[in-house]
Amino acid sequence: MSKRKRILLTLSSVVAMICAYGWFFGIATAMVLEARYFGWKAPVLKKTPVELADSSISSTPVRKLAFSGYEFEVPWEVDDEKTKVVGKMEVIAFRSGNAMLVSNQASKEFVNLVLKSGLDRDSFQKIYGKEALQSDYAMHQLMLQSTPDKVTLFTPRGEAVSRLMMLVMKGIAIPAPADTGLFSIRSQEFRGFQ
Q1: pLDDT at 45
Q2: Using CA atoms, how far apart are residues 118 and 149, in angstroms rounded to an integer?
Q3: Is the pTM of this model over 0.85?
Q4: How many CA atoms lie within 13 A of 61 on its CB side?
Q5: What is the pLDDT at residue 148?
Q6: If you placed Cys at 128, which of 24, 53, 132, 153 could pair as Cys (CB 3.0 to 4.6 Å)?
Q7: How confident is the model at residue 179 (pLDDT cuts 50, 70, 90)?
Q8: Beta strands of the chain (E only): which ranges?
Q9: Domain match, 166 and 188 both
Q10: Residue 81 in contact with residue 75, Cβ under 8 Å?
């Protein structure tokens, strides 16, 4: 076999392999690259909530705050000028530069907001399961458990799209870099995320 024929055969084999890869994994590769890009642009997307290691109560002097019929204490200096009430939420700014969002929403308000984004209830349940629609807490948990590494070449297309959608929602829902992490909080009265 001549050198020219070997080069053509090798080149055609490479082109055929690239076409086969593109046919079977092209869209999956695009989704994986998009998920990794999201994680690179917003590193908080790589984090998932972990149990809060220290749930002890601080002994430092506290300030009592109230919002929407709830009272709570914070051990930090509040920046009253930057603290604002926006609709059903209050953003409490601290002198350290950190902030806390407190909201009192109707039951399943977040679930209903997500369903208004385009998916009907039945389609959403097929993709994410019934549990995600049971409460806002369950919906937040589903969203916060999503990470870019859960989108792989072998993830079924529908599942990969649904995971990318949750990553986008997570990126919107977490306003800060969350350098210290994401935490699950539980007490006898409530459960949530920090």
Answers
A1: 87
A2: 25
A3: no
A4: 2
A5: 92
A6: 132
A7: low
A8: 50-51, 63-67, 70-74, 84-86, 89-93, 99-103, 183-186, 191-193
A9: yes
A10: no
